[in-house]
Task: structure prediction
Amino acid sequence: MSFIHKAGTAVLRKLPAERAHMTTVKLLRAGFGPKIRAKNTSDLAVHIGGLDLPNPIGLAAGFDKDCDVPDAMLGAGFGFVECGTVTPKPQAGNPKPRLFRLTEDQAVINRMGFNNRGLEHFHARLGARHGRGGIVGANLGANKDSRDRAADYVTGLTRLWGKCDYFTINISSPNTPGLRKLQGADAMEDLLGRLCEKRMELTGDKPSYPMFLKVAPDLDFAEIERVVEQARQYGMDAIIVSNTTIARPDSLQSVHKGEGGGLSGQPLFESSTTILREFYAASQGSIDLIGVGGVSNGAQAYAKIRAGAKAVQLYSALVYHGPQLVAQICQDLSARLKAEGFDNILQAVGADN
Result:
């Protein structure tokens, strides 16, 4: 997937999707990153899940799987950057091809399968940026062949503790067989219980690091209520709503629409915003929410916020709109807040509910 500049975005899109993405990361590591910065203003500053963000626009996990270019992405104006998903052991992921652009639909299908270089590489990359500013989080996952997947999350939390600003517990990817079963009541009880215990042990008498829970969009309201309650019970600081979907809307036009994997981008916007609104209703403001799915402009980011999100994340939109997108969204959000008489983005959170 491409990101360097507007013209470069068009050129890179001529390459196969995964090759374009790998080329983009290499260019970013070489210093050819965007020089566009979003203007950070007091009206967009937000406190969420224990983090103080300069603006509410974050980079979703999946773009920088190995934490190779977080500072380049912060340089594009993101208020926070989430790297990963990282698993304890390196793994190759699913067979190629496994990443598809649905250009007509402004969408992407991926079945990457948590391909990454493992915790040790990720740990070293975080160590290399020690002392630099900006909010960088680690998205934790489990190895495909793990006999105890909950233990993999505990391992990731332990190894990266003190190296990043927050952790996301990703139990929502459709591309690791059986992973979404961790969203079941008993499995989540075990996972969050073990993470909570380890977190207390690691924290001691020092400040803790925020932990977010990332969920799938394919949940009914009863499941949403239960997930909210369990997340609160075990001290999760925010819920990220949501990951990619296995559903295929009838509106899809691309020849790749039948590919297996998770669908992201524009077709996910309405359904992911609906489930976000349901999470807000179920939580009654008791836990912070981050909205993900189909955000490609200021209007859609604002819709997520009015539906109940304190912050939003995006990724697929960068493929089609390039690096200037973040600054454009921030400028648009400020204008919308002013037009509606809000002094700060937090005043708009949940306004539609």
